[in-house]
Design a protein that fits this description.
0% helix, mainly beta, 118 residues
């Protein structure tokens, strides 16, 4: 099983970044996919989630209207489009897969660093 994130980097406030997560080794379409983030000295928090089949999305209040999560079940990828980035969006962003319908299997990616700085 692998979740490989990409797309992180350094961006100025107000800028945009697109994170991608490529999944392999499990039945991607059967899993709810999420992005979490962890800033220095803070707990890991949910940023956005997209359900396996319904594609229903959920967002943290702090990113609503700025971030968009999407998935492609044919390519086994999940993306996070981030715009109007703020200093407080600086964190390591993690891709997370959780088996849908109450399943117990879950997987984490290794994380990708996003730094918002002027």
């Amino acid at each position: 099983v692998q979740l490989v994130e990409s797309g992180g980097g350094l961006v100025q406030p107000g800028g945009s970044l697109r994170l991608s997560c490529a999944a392999s080794g499990f039945s991607f379409s059967h899993y709810d996919m999420s992005w979490y983030r962890q800033a220095p000295g803070k707990e890991r928090e949910l940023v956005a989630r997209i359900n396996s089949y319904t594609f229903i999305t959920t967002y943290a209040d702090s990113v609503k209207g700025r971030f968009t999560i999407s998935r492609d079940n044919t390519r086994n990828t999940v993306n996070l489009q981030m715009s109007s980035l703020k200093l407080e969006d600086t964190a390591v962003y993690y891709c997370y897969a959780r088996e849908a319908w109450g399943g117990k299997l879950d997987y984490w990616g290794q994380g990708t660093q996003v730094i918002v700085s002027s």
